[in-house]
Amino acid sequence: MKVYLVNPRYPDTFWGFRHVNDLNGMQYCIANLSVPTVAALTPADVEVEICDENVEAVDFETDAEIIGLTSFNIQSNRAFEIAAEFRKRGKLVVMGGPYATLVPQHCRDHVDVLFVGEAELTWPRFLQEYRAGTYSNLYEQVEKVDIKDTPIPRWDLMKIDRYGSVGVQTTRGCPFNCEFCDIIVMLGRKVRTKTVEQVMAELRFLQPLLERAGREDIFFTDDNFIGNKKFAKELLKEIISFNNSLSRKIHFMTELTITLANDEDLLDLLVQANFTRVFVGIESPRTESLNEVAKVQNTRWDMERSIEKIQSHGIFIWAGMIVGFDHDDVHVFREMFDFIQKNKIIGSITGPLSAPINTPLWQRLREEGRLIDDTWSDHGSTNIIPKNMTRQQLYAGYHWIMAEQYTYENYTQRLLGMIDLLPADRPVRTRGLPTWKQVKTLLKTLRYYALTTDWRRQRMFWKVIVACLRRKPAYLDEVLSHVIVHKHMYRHTERLTEGFVVANPADVADVGHTPAAREAQHVPRAVDRAEEVWVRAAS
Ligand code: B12
């Protein structure tokens, strides 16, 4: 018996980082963790093959009898295309993952068997019932599983050398209760952890694969890596001695809450373990907007001081920022931009507030008749009707911020500010010569940034690199990789906002005041953007 597990192609997104593939030789930024996890849950006597369409083509001639699809919301269209093609060829197509779990009604008709929730128990049961010919078309895991039983993901079945980093999960769930978050809908507020030994076994299995691939980055895909601080500290101590035993140090990134800043011990452990970047859900500079959506963990302490505390330990902050809360008006866009600049938030995805299905926010806005579409699925768009601005103003403001954030000048300013904040020295560093892959990346980066007639691009490169070499040479690799990644954000934002940006945020107030625009408030989302462009042209 053979199973073919497929991670469909992601469309071009901010988080896809596709515009740097030509500089660092990767084909995709991160190795998806869902498919190697399901592969590991498959009994040893069942043959498993993994295909990640982001780094290789789907083999529609496969001799597997079961095709297993995983999917985030933005992959769903492609997943359904692949499902249709395989069903035409008589294959049994099954689907699981975040989208099947959060919006099963959208996936039902596209596949033969649907997996809702975690699959640690349902997948092996399905395979057993498949063999017995008694399988059903829906497997739903209601109780949260104990991930201490989750086996080491089958990264050996993936083409690790084609990725920039690899995802590893140590916990599931988040203790906080943000109104717009569907993580707690999917995985709950009780943080479940693996054992420290379990995670270390995963890292010991993965590290040689990374080394052979000439890669050094691991992304802990936890929703909140410090959701259970006691566990995080015990794990970090083991990671520190593991990393110290390696000649080529692993760089770690993860997602966590701003509450990190209040725990000096935890901060030091992260630094000693070589965590160089964290993604933090900062969301908004406005306390009243944060309180509105119960993001209380962001309002208890001085946010700006917390951000600086983390940065001054040598950890770069990337953030999730949201515009369009009920306490936001058209002045929030300038405010948000100034906040991002002032606090040197290097990379942030600033998106319009959206209400994922079944979240408390979704419930509330539905009761208030302020939902355009209740099964939002397209990043960069929103399914809500904001309170103190029009949808057109929200889109125009969102595009203005994204464009403004990633100009060469504004990005340079943030990076130079971060270089000033970095500690003079760095406890963990890979000594010795760079790998051939790193040399190639450096040469391509030099060609892109130094051998160009675009003097603004050149100026950003030299200003930042010279400042780093002069003031904080120990962080050159981290600073250089932030220069490299700017190419993606610049190109992505250019595309995102093409023909769609207001000159300055104050103009946002004018957008969308025509009757047509007001009417556009209630048109189905797909037309939305075209309508806006038309509105602007008309006004
Ligand atoms: C790590 C992560 C990222 C990383 C890496 C993504 C990647 N390529 O893998 C980054 C930061 C790049 C990212 C980006 C995005 N992400 Co993200 N991400 C996550 C996160 C935090 C963890 C995912 C993970 O590693 N899970 C670990 C695996 C093991 O868990 P799992 O997938 O749930 O798998 C289990 C079951 O679902 C099941 N299963 C899974 N697949 C299959 C398949 C079969 C056949 C079967 C039987 C079972 C099965 O079995 C597994 C074991 O129980 C999740 C939140 C979460 N906790 O799920 C959000 C999440 C998946 N992301 C989400 C989104 C929206 C995005 C973006 C679109 C955001 C954006 N604004 O651009 C982008 C899109 C990706 C892109 N390339 O651009 C949403 C998806 C929501 C939805 N309705 O689908 C989530 C749920 C977050 C959220 N708040 O809603 N993301």
List the helices and strands and how they pair.
Elements: E1 2-7, H1 21-24, E2 28-31, H2 34-40, E3 47-52, E4 66-70, H3 76-88, E5 92-96, H4 98-102, H5 104-107, E6 113-116, H6 122-132, E7 138-140, E8 163-168, E9 171-172, H7 183-187, E10 192-193, H8 196-213, E11 217-220, H9 229-244, E12 251-256, H10 264-272, E13 275-283, H11 287-292, H12 303-311, E14 316-323, H13 332-342, E15 347-352, H14 360-367, H15 391-405, H16 408-421, H17 436-450, H18 455-471, H19 476-496, H20 515-520, H21 525-538
Helix pairs in contact: 8-9, 9-10, 13-15, 16-18, 16-19, 18-19
Salient structural properties:
single chain, 539 residues, alpha/beta, Rossmann fold, TIM Barrel, seven-stranded parallel β-sheet, six-stranded parallel β-sheet, 15 strands, globular, disordered C terminus, binds cobalamin
